[in-house]
Predict the structure.
Amino acid sequence: MTAEDLLDGLDPEQRVAAETLLGPVCLLAGAGTGKTRAITHRIAYGVASGVYPPSRVMALTFTSRAAGELRSRLRVLGAAGVQARTFHAAALSQLSYFWPQVVGGTLPRVLDSKARLLAQAAEGVGVAVDTAALRDIAAEIEWRKVSGLSLEQYEQRAVDRALPNGLDPRRATAIQRQYEELKDARRQLDFEDVLLATIGMIEEEPRVAQHVREQYRFFVVDEYQDVSPLQQQLLAAWMGDRRDVCVVGDASQTIYSFAGARADYLLDFGSRYPDASVIRLERNYRSVPGVVAAANRLMRDRPGALSLVAAAHPADGAEPAVAALSYPTEQAEARSIADDVAVRAAAGERLRDIAVLYRINSQSAAFEAAFAERGIACAVRGSERFFEKREVKEAMMMLRAAALTMSSDPLFKTVSDVLRSLGWSQQPPETRGAVRDRWESLDTLMGLAEEAPAGTTLAQFVEDLAERQAAQHEPTVDAVTLATVHSAKGLEWERVYLAGLSEGYLPISYAKTPGAIEEERRLLYVGITRARSALRLSWASAGPHRASTREPSRFLEELGTSIRETAATAAR
């Protein structure tokens, strides 16, 4: 694949992004505008044209799944030598390398969880807390550190924060101070310390700074609207006085402010680099015009909001892209959605192309029950990981062994033969339970083989599976996805049901300030833009208990008169 081949198929704005290889670049990329395509082709074009030595490029993102996706795409595009990592993975690799040289000895153990040490810290200062409170204190520690606050500064700021029951700023700070003392005494680090220690080594040790800055010259930062002050400080330490950085993001998708993310770094990029190339991707290839119009209405006149233009078009005679419905109870809402899914599935729609999204985890219970009543497969996002399943591990082991035989058979046939030996067949078993679950897992592996690029060898396929496993990049099984809107970020489906759109859920009841309400607005925007061809909005006038009454979300009215009228009609 030549450098020019890599530019074929890009739209004009994506092509400009791919060809702008040097200097500060800000890529403002709206939902569904092909940002991952743009940045991977940009990196691959830089490598193919000789501007980027692949070993000197660092692509940064925020999840292992996203990093795995970048690596997979870059490999296909001929840029396999480029590093694509999360901030934490990159920092931990560097810290493990430099610690013996700078400090001496082995790197302290990195805590898997703060819970046990926090429990000991709370006991040490005489504060009684339960498990839920410990999780909240752990989140406070993470917020304090990524925000760059000392314990003293945190205690002052904590006056305005929602602390766990029974804790005031003084006690919350005392627990954190004891936690830090215990951790240091036991030579342990938490995940935030990894970033802090890496920054410290680069800033305090000239030879470390020289080594790191010689190793990595060109940076790409995906989802830049989610960067925290600590991550921004680490990026600055890595770059030094270099200016070859491309940041990619969408201020309208900033939904992690509670965890320290700041869209200011994206919005102010042009001020920090007055000569920066600013490129806007606003052609939405994911969603039909009705969905795009709803998203634009919700974010109209918001700071940094992009105006999306739909490039996808509905089929002739297609149903309305967006509808809104009201229900008397949450159970009625869940059952109606399950009934509608059953109709869609009977008409040939794949379950894997359908998602039900909601604001909080507990909302899933009604949908799980409704789908179970109808015998419809559903998967709660965040449950057992695909590659941890026994049958998947067994299949991967056998595929790995088969790859050693150097068979010349096509990938499809070889994988099919291996999976058949484990009980897979083209037709699913006429039963529910463990047998069906096992078949679904094996069938998913078969689907991955079918979707592999032409010419992929079995060895390459096995390598790709291993990378997915390492990155926890799970394929989609044939089931309806149930997920919170937060966990749905970065994903998409043909049909999306956004449920529970009432006051108290979205916006959530504890969103009291204007800033918190705007974060809820952006969360709804993320939910809306997950839908390709159909979006159904709904709310229930009664909560889990019939005595509790709810009002429709304030955002529904902003989404347009026709949608509001549909909701009002359905409510009668």
The two ends are 60 Å apart (CA to CA). The mean pLDDT is 86.
